[in-house]
Amino acid sequence: MDGHELLDLAEQCAQAKKPIRVHCCTSTGCQAARSLEVKKALEKRVQDCQLADRVEVVGVGCMGFCGQGPMVELDSTDPQVTTTHYEKVTPAQAPSIIDTIQGGKTDALQGNSQHPFFAKQLLIVRNHSGKVDPERIEESIALGAYQALHHALFELTPEAVVQEISKSGLRGRGGAGYPTGLKWATVAKMPPGQKYVICNGDEGDPGAFMDRSVLESDPHRILEGMAIAGYAVGADQGFIYVRAEYPLAIHRLQKAIQQAKQKGFLGSQIFGSGFDFKVDIRVGAGAFVCGEETALIASVEGKRGTPRPRPPYPAISGLWQAPTLINNVETFANIAPIIRKGADWFAGIGTETSKGTKIFSLTGKVCNTGLIEVPMGISLRTIVEEMGGGVSEGQVKAVQTGGPSGGCIPSSYLDTPVDYESLAALGSMMGSGGMVVMDDKTSMVEVARFYMEFCRSESCGRCVPCRTGTVQLHDLLTKLVEGRGTAFDLAQMESLCQVVRHTSLCGLGMSAPNPIVSTLRYFPEEYQALLQPDRWRIPATVS
Ligand SMILES: Cc1cc2nc3c(=O)[nH]c(=O)nc-3n(C[C@H](O)[C@H](O)[C@H](O)COP(=O)(O)O)c2cc1C
Ligand code: SF4
Ligand code: FES
Fold first, then answer.
1. Which ligand is nearest to the CA of 405?
2. Secondary structure of the chain: what % helix, strand, coil (to 5)?
């Protein structure tokens, strides 16, 4: 297929769409709220009313406002029918939504697309989520899927692709924010031979579901990003590592790979070029540590998923000792838009050092929960108060970002811009995108204990500081929470945090103390209030 044929195919696929599309979210969140029954009821009404010639019901991916699911959107190019979305739709209400097409009334809850939750978002990664049926490749082709891959293969050299990604300023969305172009250049510079591309879809942070949503809603975007990466670095094999708890994502990826292969977008001689690229899925058993790149590689090799010391980094010696490019789902999801629209376009969004957008799963005590994609540099206040609608009772007390490796930012810092450096300066981190809002009834010591409990149970046990340090830190926190702790325990805890942070082998242990350190930094009075009189009069070092 040449470039013209691909554009023709996109045109045909777009023409095949009916003027009124009823998008019904069939991603995991809405399925749990009975969206498949809603979809059936919508389809039945379309049939019963003989509207099938101009109305189609389409099962789509996540629309973002998951807390209000099941979500249904009437997406219309027919001037007689207004595009509208509905929230918390029940199977009983579904037929009346179809009736509105013919002037009828519905009691379904109509949403407000001007609400800041939607209006303040900037969609790059999620711009097709909730718009396409992820199980039909034609839907993605109609919106331009695989055109960036075609452009890269026929208009750009591998070096030019790497250069474009470097120039865009894209940084890895898996947590650390490592410059993506630099990582690609390192793998590309390794001598020709077997190389691999891995997409990290492990996503083990509690409360995070950004990557799952992207995989479920728009899998072709990831396959295209991986294939472009394969071309740029000289790899012909890719693996997507997804946890077994994400069965829908796995199912949709399998289907997407099969359909892309049938169209000649994956496999041998892609688009008739000399470039071959295969993608296979590897299913993880759900250990948080398997998201760490060296543990993930061990797991793909069929070994126990434990980290190993770095260097060598995977870019030099990774899967089966071959140079391996490993990037996060959201990182790969940015690649096709950058190649299509250019590095300068992408670099124009965000801040000096943090470019583009970031997806967060906004959860906790905030009124509006769900997935949001926002430009880097937006303030925490805009996210929490405007988009999230604040908390339903009392005041916002803190925002936790970065999951178990991150920290708690107090409400006095809500005007902080969301970018890698600003969050790190506050003792937290961007992480992969978990954002948990806490109200003034939340005990910050309990929060620290929750994350430590998570790290304790997820520690792989390979190195002593993390294996025993997380147990001891958890014990000390429990003692404090139960009112049995002393100033001596607090001092012990602080010094143990430093030991675990500086002597653990991998990022899990190195960052496990972060929730304690940040809550001690901003909420020392909550720890002090729990202390028992100290029999040995050893002073606490908490200021
Ligand atoms: C304990 C631990 C868990 C991690 N989990 C993930 C994960 O689920 N997804 C991810 O992309 N990166 C995760 N990472 C980061 C990866 O090791 C790696 O840096 C990342 O996949 C690189 O992709 P990026 O450059 O696109 O961010 C984790 C790191 C640690 C230490
Ligand atoms: S720091 Fe923890 S998770 Fe990482 S290797 Fe050591 S024991 Fe395993
Ligand atoms: S899962 Fe349906 S809107 Fe997110």
1. 1
2. 45, 15, 40
